[in-house]
Amino acid sequence: MLALGVVMVFSASLASAFFDNQDGYFYLKREVLFAVIGVISMFTLARYDFTRLRKLAPALVVLSLVLLVLVFIPGIGVSAKGARRWIGFGLATFQPAELAKLAVIIFVAKQMSSKPRLLTSLRDMAMPVLAVPVVVCALVLFEPDMGTAITLGLTVAGMLLIGGISLRVLALPGLVTAFSLLFSVFVSPHQMDRITAFLDPWKDAAGSGHQIIQSWVAIGSGGLTGVGLGQSVQKFNYLPEPHTDMIFSIIGEELGVLGALLVVGGFSAFAFMGFRIALKCRYPFGKYVAAGITSMLVGQAAINLCAVTGLMPLTGVPLPLISYGGSSLIVILASIGILLNIADNPRGKIAAAHQRKSRTAQSRDRGRGNGRPSGSGSGARRRAHG
Fold it and tell me: Which residues neighbour 336 within 8 Å (Cβ) at sequence distance 6 or greater?
């Protein structure tokens, strides 16, 4: 999927890269650099014992909160298209919300594994588990970045469900989150425009509805097998953001329904394997981290695919592993490295083996009668005195 992303970023960005930078390879070169850094991070973390991340959880949360606040400071935060989501480092920019998502996953997993009883009561769970995600979501919504806030909500919900929380306990936080998102829509004209474009894009086809209409044109033009790799017409300044948020539309145009199904199948396979790792891991912290990483990546993909196809309002969420982006790609590949370590780490297997031995010993002792351990009978006493 990463290889497909690099190819499609080059194809989708060729026109805009040439017109904006006089270099058709501008975005390709940067995407390859980001991919190399991300793959190195992935293999490094795949060999790093994930249990050590427990101690890093508070530091990662504090760092993420500081970076999210720095976004709003003039001269440090970078504003683009009505939002302040980036921190500038010379020619490069960094999006703190991407790091914050991983930090929230590690922090919530630490709290859930340390105190399992927290999941039985909303009152007990509010401060230790939900406080940090709520603060992060609030800062992200002020940027504004509703897509990332929704992704964070889905991520935490996936972790709580894997942890065995009842839907009754989860209902109130879900309602509060929904009302918070509605409030954010009403106070932000930009987000309100996206809602109205979702309800009736043809009402303002040249304005707020332009992007989704052009996305439909791109996907509809592809047919079953597409117009051919590199042959997209919509990427020539008809479809905004063809190499970032709307890259799935270019995939549908150039590779057709078959290419689109390949992408959906890839994320479906990732969801199956990621949640399988989470369910099979016997180490609670690893179980929750695996569930969080899988929920984050698959949830973000679902939001992007639904927005691009018109099933929900546009949110500005990129397609993981495929859309152009530095911060997002590096953090996602690093997260996959953690997931790989959880899948292959002996700690989970040792815990499972220990639990099986304990259950076997207990059942064997119960079979001897009265629940007494082996060696506790009169014969054992005679052998001891003899």
Answer: 42, 293, 297
